């Protein structure tokens, strides 16, 4: 069993309030709270749909046992692995030396593997015996996020702003799914 928990959220949104208001052609502050909420919802929807982190954020993935020789870190793009720890039966942690494993940042999602001739050390604890903390995202600034993802966010914010009183049935607007589809990671 694995558990994924966000440790540090992104410091900034991939689309700012001023940009969304300009896209919506709004000049007053009357709807700022609503637009901010719509931006947050659109970002959550984008990250869920694509499996990607847009702005740099830190995640912790916990396993009971090693899932295999390669461990998928489930969020892309992978920026860095902060640490890999195993826990003994007495709950003491051992941090693995980064020279012991290889970080494949080019895979989507990123992954870690033990280096040739190495085997993952068995955890002494039966539950939550392995912990991997990593950073994912396109970068710390909104301008590092691919434009197609950002454009889809703006279209989704506009769609939800216009249809705020009408249920949409949960389907993404066609324009949004067309922009995001190339970035979507399919999980098997």
Instruction: Estimate what percentage of residues fall within beta strands.
Output: 15-25%
> From N to C, what is the helix and strand string?
EHHEEEEEEEHH
Please give the radius of gyration in angstroms.
Answer: 20 Å
Total tally of structural domains: 2
| CATH architecture descriptor of the largest domain | Orthogonal Bundle
The major pleated sheet works out as:
5 strands, antiparallel
Determine the N-to-C terminus distance: 16 Å
Low-pLDDT residue spans = none
Calculate the mean pLDDT score and round it.
Answer: 93
Q: If you consult CATH, what is the topology of the largest domain? A: Hypothetical protein yqbg
Question: According to CATH, what is the class of the largest domain?
Answer: Mainly Alpha
* Tally of DSSP helical segments: 4
The class by helix and strand makeup works out as alpha+beta
Helix amount? 25-40%
Number of strands: 8
Structural shape = elongated
Strand order of the largest sheet: 1-2-8-4-5
């Amino acid at each position: 069993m694995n558990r994924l928990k966000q440790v540090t959220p992104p410091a900034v949104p991939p689309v700012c309030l001023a940009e969304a208001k300009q896209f919506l052609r709004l000049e007053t502050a009357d709807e700022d709270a609503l637009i901010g909420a719509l931006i947050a919802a659109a970002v959550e929807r984008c990250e869920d749909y694509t499996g990607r982190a847009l702005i740099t954020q830190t995640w912790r993935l916990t396993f009971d046992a090693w899932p295999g020789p390669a461990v998928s870190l489930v969020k892309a793009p992978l920026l860095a692995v902060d640490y890999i720890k195993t826990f003994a039966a007495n709950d003491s942690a051992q941090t693995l030396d980064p020279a012991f494993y290889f970080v494949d940042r080019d895979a989507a999602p990123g992954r870690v593997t033990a280096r040739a001739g190495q085997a993952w050390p068995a955890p002494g604890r039966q539950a939550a015996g392995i912990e991997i903390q990593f950073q994912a995202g396109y970068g710390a600034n909104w301008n590092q996020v691919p434009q197609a993802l950002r454009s889809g966010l703006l279209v989704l914010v506009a769609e939800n702003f216009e249809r705020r009183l009408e249920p949409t049935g949960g389907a993404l607007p066609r324009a949004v799914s067309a922009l995001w589809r190339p970035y979507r990671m399919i999980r098997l």
